[in-house]
Amino acid sequence: MKLTELEKGERATIVKIGKLGELKKRLTDMGITSGEIIKLERNAPLGDPQQFLIKGTGIAIRKEDAAHIEIKEIEGDN
Hints:
Elements (H helix, E strand, L loop, with lengths): L10 E7 L4 H8 L7 E7 L6 E5 L2 E5 L1 H4 L2 E5 L5
Antiparallel strand pairs: 1-2, 1-5, 2-3, 3-4
């Protein structure tokens, strides 16, 4: 499942960050790696970028970049 498939308020675990070059390096530098829990907080008015909550910090990721981040749904999470 890709990060772009997450609905507002849903949480998931990051499985893999694909080949994003500089973005992957920045995310890793912030401690955003495989195994972290990510939650979709909201979409921008036109739908792009999306704001996610990771480790208590809100970050905006463009859908184009989010499509390269593989996630796994958290069982029983509403």
